[in-house]
Design goal:
Layout (H helix, E strand, L loop, with lengths): L2 H8 L11 E16 L7 E18 L4 E7 L12 E4 L3 E7 L6 E7 L5 E4 L6 E2 L7 E2 L11 H5 L10 E5 L1 H4 L10 H15 L3 E4 L3 E2 L12 E5 L6 H13 L3 E6 L3 E2 L29 E2 L5 H18 L3 E4 L3 H4 L11 H17 L4 E4 L21 E3 L1 H11 L3 H4 L4 H4 L1 H4 L5 E5 L11 H4 L4 H17 L3 E5 L24 H19 L13 E5 L7 E8 L2 E8 L5 E8 L4 E7 L15 E3 L1 E2 L7 E7 L4 E8 L6
Helix pairs in contact: 4-5, 6-8, 14-15
Length: 638
């Protein structure tokens, strides 16, 4: 890499800044003075210079306004005079080669900044960092990990026509600590893989694992954007985690926060004495009290795009969920402040370049705005994401399920409004960690009513999420129907599995995943409006909804009763004459219900409600959700 790379870096065009900057184990040819025998008299020697290869680490730093730069570490007793760095590019690139270093050595950069102050800074491109409260970077050779996931990678796609049911986890609190220590990435994988396979999820999404100092930030305020979180191990251990999930057929998505960074003085803040990474104006401080990246600066773009590409390339992640996209698109996340054009350009560049290098990975936007074209391709004027979290669906849905059934008739549109805009973007339906923290209550205790009603509504809600078009995401613990909010310092309450009501919800989620994966109507061409049809959409009086989804021979009818009223014979309009078989009912006793299910085959009759040509007459328990599968025409084959 030479001047071409530097130009690409400075203009925000490189995806591989990590290959040049940081600390890399390598070999260099150096001149040494040796004694060699004289040709005329071999018994005598003379001094001569010879070249030989030596092992070591090449350190490179980008700090335009730094001076008198050196590497300090445990290998030179933190002596800032021992390993001075030479300026090799006028734009502010410094380097030094140090022989005979090894993995896990501690180091920092020591230099005079633009203010004339000497500072010690962690390496922005370090691959490993010291565990808090330490603040040093650590050496790690990231090359030559032995992968075994070739088959998985060969079949990887962006999954538009495949089922995507994501299990979002926080590595540290899924199983919690053992004897006061965090489990490693590999130890978590031992338990996680059989659990994911048994419960039918297709992907795992891990919350940010870039190095961060404060546990309470849960990874969203990082200091090391290339550093694997040392709470759970080193880079090879994270690679092993992904490799093993891939071998089990499970995709892995990384949550990444490119909006802001932690305020710790040894990190990116005023790195070279200037606001090198952050804004220098009123937008410097984010709504979370952290510092916001200036995404209009090209070197910052290269830094962040490179970080995400690093995780895709070296760790084989199958996609990236980009956090807080609304705070990228609009100044401080407020639409009234106008679009941040420099940051919008960063998003376009990010998606364009990562999709060019990894055409099969998913780019997912966590975006709460109505910004146009978030998942539209770049060539058509969009931002180039593959999927967008439907936070409008999430907010309306949870609000509706919390209502007293008496008042649901007045909020009927909260359940049907999502389909009015569904085809404007490729949506993912999230019930994420954001909904079970900061006093918001868990999914279970958001539901209306007493103990039994809450469980019935949770079962209904999950059936609605899986029935509604869009990819699925659930935060760990949703399947346990926990009463207690998630706490990153504690394990999930696995003991709830001993109680039938809670264990039954887990079984329901598993069965919904299995139906979702086996029925093409639930995931193939779901962004094509030809495959979805409302059957009962305006029945506000009864608060009952029904719709059908059909792809080829897969034809399903979904029915949702949003009140505790029981119906022995309720008419649901359908579009096809024939026989319908109930394949799922949330009121079955195996899910903790009253067992008022239908079972067997139901033949259609002429003239259904809401102008449908046919109808089926079914039993409908209070708060029940049912799925019927069209079997065949009553008389001859259709």
């Amino acid at each position: 890499m030479g001047s071409n790379f530097i130009n690409d870096f400075l203009y925000g065009q490189t995806t591989k800044a990590y290959e040049y900057f940081g600390a890399h184990f390598t070999q260099r040819e150096i001149e040494v003075e040796v004694e060699v025998p004289l040709k005329k008299d071999p018994t005598k020697t003379k001094k001569a210079k010879r070249k030989r290869l030596v092992d070591g680490v090449l350190f490179r730093l980008y700090a335009p306004c730094a001076d008198d730069v050196s590497v300090i570490g445990d290998f030179n007793n933190w002596d800032y005079g021992a390993n001075k760095m030479k300026k090799v590019e006028d734009c502010g690139v410094f380097e030094v080669f140090i022989e005979n270093l090894h993995n896990y050595s501690f180091y920092k950069y020591h230099f005079k900044n633009a203010k004339g102050e000497y500072v010690d800074k962690a390496d922005p491109y370090a691959f490993l960092s010291e565990y808090r409260p330490g603040s040093c970077s650590r050496l790690f050779n990231i090359e030559n990990f032995a992968w075994h996931d070739e088959e998985f990678l060969k079949n990887r796609t962006r999954n538009f026509d495949r089922p995507v049911s994501i299990y979002e986890i926080h590595i540290g609190s899924w199983k919690g600590k053992v004897d006061g220590r965090n489990l490693s990435y590999e130890e978590v994988a031992d338990f996680l893989i059989p659990y994911i396979k048994d419960n039918g999820f297709t992907h795992v999404e891990i919350m940010p694992i870039c190095q961060y100092p404060f546990d309470g930030s849960r990874g969203y305020q990082a200091t090391g954007f290339y550093s694997v979180d040392s709470r759970y191990g080193n880079p090879f251990q994270l690679m092993s985690f992904v490799d093993r999930l891939h071998q089990a057929g499970i995709g892995v998505i990384l949550d990444f926060a490119p909006v802001h960074f932690a305020t710790d003085s040894w990190s990116l803040v005023e790195f070279d004495g200037t606001t090198m990474y952050e804004y220098s104006n009123e937008h410097r401080v984010s709504p979370w009290g952290s510092y916001q990246f200036d995404l209009g600066k090209d070197p910052v773009r290269s830094f962040l795009i490179g970080a995400m590409n690093y995780f895709l390339t070296y760790f084989h992640f199958d996609g990236i969920r980009v956090d807080a996209v609304s705070n990228i698109l609009y100044w401080d996340g407020n639409k009234n402040n106008g679009a941040n054009e420099g940051a919008v350009e960063f998003i376009k560049r990010l998606n364009g370049k990562l999709h060019y290098e990894h055409p099969e990975i998913m780019m997912i936007a966590e975006d709460s705005t109505d910004f146009s074209g978030v998942t539209k391709p770049l060539e058509y004027g969009g931002l180039g994401f593959d999927y967008k979290w439907d936070l409008g669906w999430m907010n309306d849905t949870l609000k509706y399920y919390s209502l007293n059934p008496i008042y649901k008739q007045y909020e009927h549109n909260k359940l049907n409004f999502s389909m009015a805009y569904f085809y404007s973007d490729n949506f993912m339906l999230p019930l994420s960690h954001d909904e079970v923290v900061h006093g918001k209550g868990t999914i279970l205790n958001k539901m209306w009513g007493d103990y039994n009603n809450k469980f019935a509504l949770v079962r209904n809600l999950y059936t609605y999420q899986f029935g509604h078009p869009g990819k699925k995401l659930n935060f760990m613990g949703n399947e346990l129907a926990s009463w207690d909010e998630w706490n990153e310092q504690k394990s999930l309450p696995w003991d709830l599995k001993r109680y039938p009501k809670h264990d039954s919800v887990s079984r329901l989620v598993r069965d919904l995943n299995l139906i979702y994966r086996s029925e093409p109507a639930m995931h193939v061409e779901e962004h094509n409006p030809a495959h979805f049809n409302w059957l009962m959409v305006d029945n506000a009086r009864d608060s009952i909804f029904a719709f059908e989804r059909r792809v080829g021979d897969s034809h399903l009818v979904f029915v949702y009763n949003m009140t505790p009223n029981y119906y022995e014979n309720y008419e649901i309009g359908v579009t096809r004459e024939g026989t319908y078989v109930e394949i799922f009912n949330s009121d079955k006793d195996v899910y903790g219900g009253t067992n008022a299910y239908n079972g067997g085959e139901y033949m259609s009759y002429y003239y259904g409600p809401e102008g449908r040509p046919h109808k089926i007459v079914i039993k409908l328990a209070g708060f029940a959700a049912c799925i019927f599968k069209y079997s065949h025409k009553n008389s001859e084959k259709e």
